[in-house]
Amino acid sequence: MDLRYTPDEIAFRDDLRKFFRSEIPLPIRRKVSEGRALARDDYVTSQRILHAKGLATPNWPVQWGGQDWTPVQRYIYVEELQAAAVPQPLGFNVNMVGPVIATFGSEAQKQRFLPSTANLDIWWAQGFSEPGAGSDLASLKTTARREGEEFIVNGQKTWTTLGQYADWIFCLVRTDSTVKKQAGISFILIDMKTPGITLRPIITIDGGHEVNEVFFDEVRVPAENLVGELNKGWDYAKFLLSNERIGIARIGMTKERLARVKRLAQETPAGEGMVWDDPDFRRRLAWSEIELKALEITQMRVVAAQRGKASDKPDPSSSILKIKGSEIQQASTQLLVDVAGPYAMPRPDRDEEGLNLPSVGPDWADAAAPLFFNYRKVSIYGGSNEIQRNIIAKAFLGL
Amino acid sequence: MDLRYTPDEIAFRDDLRKFFRSEIPLPIRRKVSEGRALARDDYVTSQRILHAKGLATPNWPVQWGGQDWTPVQRYIYVEELQAAAVPQPLGFNVNMVGPVIATFGSEAQKQRFLPSTANLDIWWAQGFSEPGAGSDLASLKTTARREGEEFIVNGQKTWTTLGQYADWIFCLVRTDSTVKKQAGISFILIDMKTPGITLRPIITIDGGHEVNEVFFDEVRVPAENLVGELNKGWDYAKFLLSNERIGIARIGMTKERLARVKRLAQETPAGEGMVWDDPDFRRRLAWSEIELKALEITQMRVVAAQRGKASDKPDPSSSILKIKGSEIQQASTQLLVDVAGPYAMPRPDRDEEGLNLPSVGPDWADAAAPLFFNYRKVSIYGGSNEIQRNIIAKAFLGL
Amino acid sequence: MDFDLTDEQRMLSDSIRRLVADAYDDFEKRKTYRAQPRGYADANWQKFAEMGLLGLPFSEDDGGFGGGPVETMLVCEQFGRGLVVEPYLATVVLGGGLLKRAGSAEQRAELIPAIAEGSLTLAFAHQERQARHDLFDIATTATRNADGYVLNGAKGVVLHGDSADRLIVSARTAGARRDRDGISLFLLDPATAGVIRRGYATQDGLRAAEVVLENVSVPASALLGAEGAALPLIEQVVDEAQAAICAEALGAMEVLRDLTVDYLKQRTQFGQPIGNFQALQHRAADMLVASEQARSMAMYAAMMVQEADPAARRVALSAAKALVAKNADQLGKDAIQLHGGIAVTEEYKAGHYFKRLTMLAGLFGDVDHHLRVVVAAGGLPEAA
Amino acid sequence: MDFDLTDEQRMLSDSIRRLVADAYDDFEKRKTYRAQPRGYADANWQKFAEMGLLGLPFSEDDGGFGGGPVETMLVCEQFGRGLVVEPYLATVVLGGGLLKRAGSAEQRAELIPAIAEGSLTLAFAHQERQARHDLFDIATTATRNADGYVLNGAKGVVLHGDSADRLIVSARTAGARRDRDGISLFLLDPATAGVIRRGYATQDGLRAAEVVLENVSVPASALLGAEGAALPLIEQVVDEAQAAICAEALGAMEVLRDLTVDYLKQRTQFGQPIGNFQALQHRAADMLVASEQARSMAMYAAMMVQEADPAARRVALSAAKALVAKNADQLGKDAIQLHGGIAVTEEYKAGHYFKRLTMLAGLFGDVDHHLRVVVAAGGLPEAA
């Protein structure tokens, strides 16, 4: 047992660290670090730089641009990416639809979609959640009825993250309503330019436009866009969601944020000294660091336990990572608000890039409260923490 | 709206305060304050002093020794009793069986039992809980079958607090097993000297003997010992449990304990100074004081809302008092352990009065951890805090 | 001991509730108020004036209605229920509190009737960037000259400072930055040369301003109260504001709690209302406990703000604020979590309550700050 | 990075688990061990010796088996699972840790083989009443004279100090009470004139003693290590003890968690196993999260106790202890609450695990103390 990296792992890490910090433009990384919204081009620029180096889709099959890495290497990759505040390669492309197409898609679908998906020439959105199907995803109602060589899609999806930038959307649709709910769902690819699709922005309480509703009204989709078999979509969705394991706790990102909180606390005046001199603040920060260290090792243990196991098996320990990871992420944004103090309050108007015109308080402070508000979502999405506790109780504890 | 006492209320309070502190022997009050076990005689001595002054059974009907007090006066009485570390008049006698007999008993039962119950000439125990009937009290299995002018009782009760001192026990027994569970229960009085009763001590993790199991094997009870109507026992039990409202949060007692914690912290050395100089300790103590102050006002609000209402109506706000009250009580015992520090560890042998022979650390310190262990019970008994949350969700929130 | 409201108080509370319900029933209306030039609705302000709310805490001699802390609590609780955006705290509680106590007969006669009739608003320009929550940490200077004083300094996050008709500015006439003595108050027309205001929205949809003072000359008559001795008064008025904030947070907590419970009853998942799930029921129960404890402490604040001993008063108000802020934070987070995604959308009410509660919790000191005040005092004051 | 145990380590862990399961399977046995004169079972101690556990951390040259922190973790985790009462921490981890590092060749040759074969136990008489958790706060004095030293002072809550065959005593040969320099260690036969021991049970069923030293004369050869320079060594060995405590607490937490989950499955109320109730399921899930996080930190402790930089080592060990102690406390309370009444009875296992966890959590510093160490250092050490 040795929690330290081997010399080879250290070399691997140092190479990545250097590449991320020298090749991904600083203004993009700075936005990530401050928790500000990225423009579409920021994502595209960053992902193409990564892809050129083979670093956008390491989990894919090697023949489609993946890397033959060990679990520890994959872990290091995610941690370093986050620690350098590099935008993660678009999850809908590289962790979701890409692996599904690579595993279950036809050869034609692979040829057509995988290279452009890896390079972010196609921007994908996810069409899973519906207004009445949140935690109970399988109760979805959007239908696709077969008419000749087409499916006709009707219904509504919601929480479609960054859907405003999407070229295509992958959807779960009901293709058989006579069987039990999980058994009548199919996985289908839809061009966002198809007539009958309307997108409506959802503005969130932080003032951001990150998510959307997508309406489908008699949308005609070629039958060849069905992935895998009809009515097997629920299996593909489960496969897709299990790919979220590594990185779900966003430890690298939180570590970076806590380091930033520390730095800002040391330079933000408060009374006789700096915020850093406040023992109560320090105590809460230290707890977050300690919990994060424990979670980091928990995550390493999960990674190590994966060695030699088939990677398409869902691992219930990801529920632990999700619960604790989201709690610590939320605590880290609260600490940022605490450092900002009264200057967490101003909410100045923004230019089209979402930046202050100009800042009222310190130039980072107006982003603190929106980040804190926005991060309430991390214990809700991807299976709420209540759902995760259900999973632990049932899958681990047999209750 | 005025949270302050009126001059009359202050005079009432000062009279009680003086009486409690001058008339109840200090050694008894000191044991209460330190959370040590009382001997049977301590209870009897204290209650008889109170009773002689009309202060043992203020909630009873005036003709049986009760007081015609306002809700505020009743509240002041309980608070001052607890704050002076006076043993509460035995709850089984004065809050439980006494009011039940006074309200539902026959005239003969009243004459026979009420005076001796008030004066603690009879010591009562409670026979409600059973091994299989905890939170689900109505599922109790102890039976009483009618044979001529007697009931024959068979079964087992548990958690019978101070049963080792009891002369009589009031029991819930099943007298009809053909109807739904709440409808077949009767309330019956049993002399502990009746043949067929066995008492077995339960030693708790603090090393104390406070609770017992009571076994009934063909125990013959005169039919005249049935209280009220046959099969109405569940109603009487609910009536009885609702009498716990005032004082359930034990605010006066916790206030006294926190004051003691503060005093001990100020005189217990720790490194360069005293425990009191530890800001983390002080912060936790302050939170307990603040929560307690809020709960005190919450309790006063409940008391005020009772004015003019029939006192036999259960009030769901007692669930709030129970949840918060138990949490703060438990926190106060943890603070005591913290003050004791390493000297919370020794557990020396005890003499028959439960005292050290002699103390290892400071003379109060060895009682700290047992009190902390013992107080885990306060969020379990009398309807666990989980049951209380169920009640709030259903009765208050309509969920 | 008496927990009942007087008939007048009950009528007052009912009237405000109706007024707020009427003005804020449709949440879209609030958006239109925020979009108005001053960031709130003049029409609402006029209604408050007509109902007597704007003159409430002033003495009848000054043209007010002689209300006390209980009346302020009743107003602010209802304003919290509606997430009212009008500048009641800034004008009536903070500005009015200073003015009625420190103002000369002339100053009171000039301003209080105008406040009461709704034609004049105030803002209290006190907080400075370096001070965080220390009320005595004031670097702004007021230098005496032949005609009066010259003010220099910068004030931050002045509530409704962008639209106020008069500013009450704190500045040092003596002493060093963190001295308790030497702080004075000045009444200032924001149109005076050298006053630079930058207004902005706050995260919870209200308004504030940065105020810079560059060689601002004011006459000697601008002095409000005794020179150099303003701190005890500032502390008292900020305590009154804390009591008002506790009440406002309480109102918002109760609405958010009820909104959440209603949602649990309506939202179905897995074939049943999610309110059937015990884990969610227990969280909802905890929300009730949290809001009931907050109500008790808001009442404690209203009582103790009248305490004659300033040290006991300050500790009590800090205790109240600490508990209310902590419970508001936890209740707010639970409300969002129990709702799920819908609560983080701008369209839905819950998120706005959460944001307002977050900001109220930090106003004039966060939980840590107020807990430290209690700790430093060795605990809560003993009741009489 | 490698989380696997070696084959030897796995075998070791399995053997201890079997041994502990055998000796402690019936909880009544533990009672009989506690009733023996030394407060534990000599027979168990001999079995530990036979299995090589008592010589484990000593070098092979000294007659040990050259085990490291991972081996100690494995032993203590299993001991925690069984609530083992034998003096492993006192003799092997604390006493042995000091002896192997500070002992002269003669001292090591005299004592280590005897420890390894189970014929000699140690106790570390260090803590003093006024010191609380400050390891450097030592008032006991050792005054040099012609023949050696004379010791005077009082040591408190010395783990297994009542039965130990040798005491290792810390005393000042120089400096003032709270100086870091000037602390020395002495090997002491408790039969020496002037040594007064009062043994007693601890709340968790182990043993400890108060040790008073009244003009105790020891020869110069009793000095263990360099005069006046013992503190860094004491700190290192106490850190090793913390790593062992983390592992022991982990073992106890996992058993208590599993006991609770089993109870939830078996206990029926309202016509069903109480484990069907979602609110209880979620508490049980939180117990799993707490114990998994504790496992991670116990591993971190085992790794970082080998860290060369003492400052980084101490902060890391404090972080580990703080987290393990906090989670042990919460898990223990949840376990009692989920069980209900049965868990507070002496007959049932759960309460004993809770009591042991409570005492382990406070040993060599409670959560507050260790969190303060982390805070004072500005946070956790950066990983290499």
TrEMBL record, chains A, B:
Keyword match Flavoprotein: yes
Keywords, sorted A to Z: Flavoprotein, Oxidoreductase
Keyword DNA damage included in the entry's annotation: no
Pfam family, one: Acyl-CoA_dh_N
Location of the Acyl-CoA dehydrogenase/oxidase C-terminal domain: 231-396
Full protein name: Acyl-CoA dehydrogenase family protein
Domain Acyl-CoA dehydrogenase/oxidase N-terminal: 6-119
InterPro entries: Acyl-CoA_Oxase/DH_mid-dom, AcylCo_DH/oxidase_C, AcylCoA_DH/ox_N, Mycobact_Acyl-CoA_DH
Domain Acyl-CoA oxidase/dehydrogenase middle, first and last residues per copy: 125-219
From TrEMBL, chains C, D:
Xref: InterPro entries: Acyl-CoA_Oxase/DH_mid-dom, AcylCo_DH/oxidase_C, AcylCoA_DH/ox_N
Keyword line: FAD, Flavoprotein, Oxidoreductase
Acyl-CoA dehydrogenase/oxidase N-terminal domain span: 6-118
Chain ranges of the Acyl-CoA oxidase/dehydrogenase middle domain: 123-216
Pfam families in the record: Acyl-CoA_dh_1, Acyl-CoA_dh_M, Acyl-CoA_dh_N
Keyword Transmembrane helix found: no
Keyword hit for Heme: no
Residue ranges of every copy of the Acyl-CoA dehydrogenase/oxidase C-terminal domain listed in the record: 237-374
Protein name, UniProt field: Acyl-CoA dehydrogenase family protein
Originating species: Falsiroseomonas tokyonensis
Phylogenetic classification of the source organism: Bacteria, Pseudomonadati, Pseudomonadota, Alphaproteobacteria, Acetobacterales
